[in-house]
Write a structure and sequence with these properties.
about 375 residues, alpha/beta, Spore Coat Polysaccharide Biosynthesis Protein SpsA, Chain A, Rossmann fold, nine-stranded mixed beta sheet, 13 helices, 14 strands, about 35% helix, about 20% strand, globular
Length: about 375
């Protein structure tokens, strides 16, 4: 077995469907992976019918159904214990892969024997580069500059932007300290040596911790720029008060685990002062109400791609009273219909070129909805056929 793909899912049925659709195309497009891969989806007690809906659509994938929400780390470890692949890909359910993403990553591993783990160039649902694609370790100085906002004033500084490795060109591949758990491919032999995710982290910081242990074991973490994926971010996590509390609890756990015994009181004060300041700012930025995608004023929509799906979407938009346009330049939102002449790779590349000119929704050929998320604070939107 070459590759095991592990996805932990909770309440993201339609986003996960798009993820699995793109994943299947990436696997089927490579002759070896088609027969030498496995996909394990761990569902953390979703109440939206995720498993019942997707099991029949993807009978070749293995679904593990938990009766409670065990969090990201524990659920990943559940699947990891039965993975058979030489490589393991930890993948978020709110992602869309390019058709060559998997084969390109495995080729990179073949030419970099020192590699322990690999992450890729990620963009959000508007095509904006996600800085967490590559990160430095959150040491006291890097953490302070990140938490206090100095990182935004000097985004390309090796000192002030150390947390996001801002001095490293995102268009080039580099060894980095920390990879994102949204797409993290690891050699199985390496993870067997260092252990899986630390289950004290319910959500957040577990990818930093694993990256740390991989580096400490003498392996290199690589940021690989030559393939791009979409990570919606807002699709799977609602940015509310509970989120802020969970995020900063996880960061505090990480600091206690790795820095308390080796750092001075002044250094720990620096870290925690920055964390508290950032926590207050994060609370102030949370909206006190949210509007559903359906409540927004209708905007002109341009439908692009697979003609087999275009007719159905036109009918749907007409019944909803949403205006459509025949000119892409006149649209405010684009619905991309993957398939027949429009690949995920070309869609992602076009989004990046457009530089946030449009809002987007995405529909994989044969799927049941079009999904999108404009930002990390957007809980995600979908249009069901």
């Amino acid at each position: 077995m070459i590759l095991s793909v592990v996805i932990v899912s909770y309440q993201v049925k339609f986003f996960l469907e798009q993820c699995l659709s793109s994943l299947k195309k990436a696997l089927d497009g490579n002759e070896q992976l088609r027969s030498q891969s496995e996909v394990l989806i761990v569902d953390n007690a979703s109440r939206d019918g995720t498993v019942e809906f997707l099991q029949t659509i993807y009978p070749g994938f293995q679904f593990i159904c938990n009766t409670d929400n065990r969090g990201f780390a524990q659920a990943n470890n559940q699947a990891l214990r039965i993975c058979q692949g030489e490589f393991v890909l930890f993948l978020n359910p709110d992602t869309i892969l390019a058709e060559d993403s998997l084969s390109a990553c495995l080729t990179f591993f073949a030419h970099h024997r020192d590699a322990g783990a690999l992450g890729v160039h990620m963009v959000d649902g508007r095509g904006r580069y996600l800085k967490e694609s590559k990160r430095g370790f959150p040491n006291p100085v890097a953490s302070f500059f990140k938490m206090t906002g100095f990182i935004h004033l000097f985004p390309r500084s090796k000192l002030f932007s150390a947390y996001y490795q801002g001095h490293l060109d995102p268009k080039s591949s580099h060894p980095v300290d920390v990879l994102s758990g949204a797409f993290m491919m690891v050699k199985k032999a390496v993870i067997d040596q260092v252990g899986g995710f630390d289950e004290q982290f319910f959500m957040y910081a577990e990818d930093i911790d694993l990256s740390w242990r991989i580096r400490k074991a003498g392996f290199t973490n690589y940021y690989f720029s030559e393939t791009s994926i979409i990570h919606f971010k807002g699709g799977s996590t609602k940015k509310d008060f509970r989120y802020v509390k969970m995020f900063y609890t996880a960061m505090d756990q990480f600091m206690k685990k790795h820095f308390v015994k080796t750092r001075s009181g002044a250094q720990m004060f620096l870290i925690r002062s920055g964390m508290r300041m950032h926590q207050v700012l994060a609370f102030l930025q949370i909206p006190f109400h949210s509007s559903s995608p359906q409540s927004r004023a209708p905007v002109p929509v341009f439908i692009k791609g697979n003609p087999d799906s275009s007719f159905l979407f036109r009918q749907k938009l007409e019944t909803m009273g949403i205006p459509m346009t025949e000119k892409e330049s006149a649209g405010v939102e684009i619905i991309y219909l993957e398939g027949s002449g429009l690949s995920w790779k070309s869609i992602i590349a076009e989004m990046i070129r457009n530089k946030v000119r449009y809002r987007y929704r995405f529909h994989g050929s044969g799927t049941h909805a079009a999904v999108g998320s404009d930002s990390a604070g957007d809980p995600g939107k979908f249009l069901v056929l």
